[in-house]
């Protein structure tokens, strides 16, 4: 079997809670709590869950944009957290991020040519003489026109700005991209264009991708496998077809029940979850989902369910499947 491009093993990212006059650590927000998964070559994996479940922190930590608390992130077999500055600098162009908000992630004082070309020059992908041509090529592939190179971010629509964000990542010929809710800030009519562009570019350029989203219909369209996170933990993971056909975890079932069906004759029984998502600073005991789960028993509030493979490539953390 081909080696995974990215292997995440028992990744944890905790943020200390400081309080009192001496700013003593009195607890931790467990944003990412023992998360493991693999992403293969040319594969797009979706990471879904409600806001605040730790998706973005997972994405940023695996790119080493923030330090981990523990665990391993292996990129082509090498732990990125054990790499020294030089090795990290070498692989940085290969691992890129597309941000959620296309406006705040672009420097308003720089032209598109400067924004997209900057990293290519920094990493020696091309020379000063070649950079304009290279930028024009990449922005054209992303659906913009060569003359846009001289314009500033405020002169573009939201969808066009996200195209600039994609071009900025692609100019470095990345092998692995974290796309963090790349369409959620955009108008619905523009979302499909950007998703189709990402799919097209991924097929042409052949990069692997962690696609972070709360929109399951987009994930169903674009991804080959899907992980579901709740309060920092992975509660279910499966190949896309399997997850959408046979969701096991009560949280996944609730999320899927909210996905709109395009056929007006088909009625879906919407599962309404009780209450709000609890604070990650003070998560419920046992199964973190027990305060909202319709199937919860006494055991669920006491014992943490083991995250295990119950069918080939189908993992779940729930006492119902023991
Ligand atoms: Fe619900 Fe219990 Fe399963 Fe948690 S372990 S999802 S509370 S049934």
TrEMBL record:
Residues in ABC transporter domain copies: 6-256
SUPFAM superfamilies per the UniProt record, alphabetical: P-loop containing nucleoside triphosphate hydrolases (SSF52540)
Keywords: ATP-binding, Nucleotide-binding, Transport
Origin superkingdom: Bacteria
Keyword match Secreted: no
One GO MF term: ATP binding
Leader sequence residues: none
Pfam family, one: oligo_HPY
PANTHER family reported for this sequence: ABC TRANSPORTER, ATP-BINDING PROTEIN, TRANSPORT ATP-BINDING PROTEIN
Descriptive protein name: ABC transporter ATP-binding protein
Organism: Clostridium neuense
Lineage: Bacteria, Bacillati, Bacillota, Clostridia, Eubacteriales
